[in-house]
Amino acid sequence: MLRRFVPLLTFAVLSGCSLTQPQQDQEQTMQAINIMEDRVNFQLATMIKQIDDQNANIDKLDKQISTLSEDMSQRYTDSTLLTFTEEEEEETPIPAIVDNDPRVAHGKVILGEEEWVWLDATQSFYKARIDTGATTSSVSATNVQIFERDGKEWARFNMNHTSDENPSEADIFEAPVVRWVKIRQASANGANRRPVIEAWVKLGQLHEKAQFTLADRTQMTYPVLLGREFFKDIALVDVGKKFVQGMNEQQLQQN
């Protein structure tokens, strides 16, 4: 009889074990899921706290920047008001009387109908006519020779003051040719081709590089003629006056 119940008891015990094992596995799985969920919630809470702390720091920095901006704005306003007040105090007294320079008007040099000009190339003074009717300037030139130097055209000539001047005593002038022009004269047929050179000219406070057409002016009163291209926008011409700028050799040589 006992032998019959032994197999039945063994089967029952094995069946109980098989039912208990899945239940244990399920409990372990749920426990693992709960642990992972707790970890995720903890990490999420930590990140939220860090974000809140960063937002708080940003708000603090914004307030500091706003305070600094207001402080700088106030300082700038105070400085501007102080500067304006000081300028007003400086300009309030009656200005001192300053002697006006008769050679200058409205920031421009005054030129008479005739002026002394200094040419750097020859280190000499020449009497010049200030001609408002002429566009270009010209300089008296005789014995003009065109030659080449460093691949460019140059002109060498004698700068005679008068027709009876000894050529050997005339100033020798050398300068590069910047262009050629055609001059048509009423007393001659056709047009003459003349070179144009550049030279530094000193006239009073003016020290400018000017272009000059080479022409024989020995029969004329002035060896130099200054046209509008030289003095436009920088000088005023008073044809009723002469030698306004004068001849200050020491000042010219210093400059």
UniProtKB/TrEMBL annotation:
Chain ranges of the Retropepsin-like aspartic endopeptidase domain: 110-246
Biological classification of the source: Bacteria, Pseudomonadati, Pseudomonadota, Gammaproteobacteria, Vibrionales
Name of protein: ATP-dependent zinc protease
Superkingdom of the source species: Bacteria
Signal peptide boundaries: none
GO biological process, one term: proteolysis
InterPro entries hit by this protein: Asp_endopeptidase, Peptidase_aspartic_dom_sf
Species the sequence originates in: Photobacterium pectinilyticum
GO molecular function, one term: peptidase activity
Coiled-coil annotated residue ranges, if any: 44-71
The keyword Hydrolase belongs to this UniProt entry's keyword annotation: yes
Entry keyword set: Coiled coil, Hydrolase, Protease
Keyword Hydrolase: yes
